[in-house]
Amino acid sequence: MTMRPSRVLSIAALVFVSACSGNNPNQPQSPVVPEFRGLVATPAQLAFTCVVPGCDSTLSVKVTSTVTRRVAIKRIVLSDENAEYTITSDQPAPFILGAAAEFNVDVRFAPVTAPKSESLKLLVTYTDASAEEGPDRIEPGELQIPLVKRLVGEPVLVANPGKLSFGVVAVGARKEEPVKVKNIGFGNIALQLSAIGDAGIRDLRVDVPSDVALVPDAGLDVPFVFTPNTEKYLSGTVTLRSPTPGVSPVQVQVEGTSFTQGRIALEPEETSLEFGEIVKGTQQTVTVRVANVGGTTLDISSLSVMDPDGRVKASFPDLMTSASLAPLQRIEVKVEIDGRVPGVIDVPLHIESNDPVRPSLDIPIRAVITEPKIATDLGLIDWGTVPQGWVVPKAVELKNVGYGTLTIKAVTFVGGQAAVFTLGNLPALPYTLARDERVAFDVELRAQAVANFTASISIESDDPMNQFHEVQLKANVGSCASSCPITNGTPSCAATGVCSIGSCNMGWYDSNLSAADGCECREIGSDPGGFCSTGVNKGTLADNGSNANHTGIIPTADDEDYIYFYAQDNNQVFSEDFDVNINLTSSDPGITMCVSRYDTGNSVNECYPDSNKTCGIRSLRRDGSYGREDGAMFYIKVYRTASSAPTCTPYTVTMRNG
């Protein structure tokens, strides 16, 4: 209705201007807008008002041709597939529409889901029906008819005021404040308001009349009642809800106090002010509020930060140095941190007042001024002289000695003869290190040719002062004849000229099969030997709790250690104390044992390693029996399983009787 007067006014104004201007040939002429030639829809859109599941409505649109030519209607479809809509045309497409003719399309809407936002259109595609070209021919086009949903009857719940203050209420007194609850929605749906209680806030009661229906624009006063039983500060949020689906709840913040004196509090947190990480060279500010939650004036006499480095400051507005707060009044405190020096900040915000309970309030202020810093355990890795053919790894350890998280981005070789060096055990990059955390990787030298080699490792990180940290590499590769150091052993160059271990010194072994560290494994004590006759004799263990133990190593795949003892069975009239326990312990899972038992009344020098043998075990128990002699020789063979690699890891065998 508002468009027609505006239209008439616009046309009348144009006529008036034309009449006053006359027929001046120099007057600019208005452009001529060509008449639209094609299809038009009446109405221009279809608006469905019943849009919830269970509705079933049909709307019609009339499509009219504005040309005196025949028009080919090619298709009538929806812009997107939607099973809730059904299209029915009185002339099924495709068809030929006569000159200046019309047809109708019915659109049925039967929703099965809740209303949702979507842009859906009814599309009618058309073109000129004549194959002949000419000035009257119409261009191909597409008529778009929007399908819209109008939600009617949506209730909206509001509460006023949203913040309710009871002020100061004496202990034992009662104070009531109303909150206006109103339905400001549209339509004819009544809003039910259920009883909601007091949201767990003690001494506060909220009374909602039962079976209240709020029609649009209707409201009621809900009484909020504060009856303090003790001195306290009341603060909380009461939520008002409606059982009507889809209606958002409203919240009312409540506050009041029954304290008889001024009481200090910090909002929003009293535990600490956590700034987190602050990049070096930047500043960060947090504003908190000091509140008087008591019933009389709170006088704040001092506000300070105990920071010897001067990086943290706290201030009241307008350069105030003190403040007086009425009951339930607040004042802002601005806390600023200047991140000029990296490091950890943990200092107290100190406030002094006339609060009788807490005259001094200290709130921790915590932050980390970040500047990660990379450090390596070695600035130069020097292999010294390495025999040709060896592969020698050396470890590089990276550490974050700065503050904040250090990110290792890349590790690459630069310069020199980097081809003889390789990286090993490098973690997946990027890799992050917290303060004092470490990570290590290996640099391997492959001594393929006799020469001196140098290179560098570049370690890229987000250390702002050292983004590309370098570690120098240096090695001298010599021939086997001139440089073949075998620690605790004798070298051998053999026919290939590669430095290797010829033999190990007595009591030393090459467990890891690497010539680079020579014969690195040393026998513990004396080797028991690989035969029963050369084994270690632990003597006689009486059945009174006697015990013995032996510690050794199995440094090679074929090494075997023999240990034996005699378990004595003393004569007992009313008891039997013979109880042999043998246990093997080692962190190397490949070490195991065989235990053999040879029954005899006395210790013998002969070996019977295959008598009553049990193998592949780590523990064995043999107890005695009444009325018979249980004495026996026990032979223990400690060896390595066939699938385990040799190590220099020790083992211990414990033996006990009784």
TrEMBL record:
Pfam family, one: HYDIN_VesB_CFA65-like_Ig
PROSITE patterns registered for this protein in UniProt: PROKAR_LIPOPROTEIN (PS51257)
Source organism superkingdom: Bacteria
Organism of this sequence: Archangium gephyra
Subcellular location: Cell projection, Cilium; Cytoplasm
Keywords: Cell projection, Cilium, Cytoplasm, Signal
Name under which the protein is recorded: HYDIN/VesB/CFA65-like Ig-like domain-containing protein
Signal peptide per UniProt: 1-21
Domain HYDIN/VesB/CFA65-like Ig-like: 373-472
Chief location of this protein within or outside the cell: other
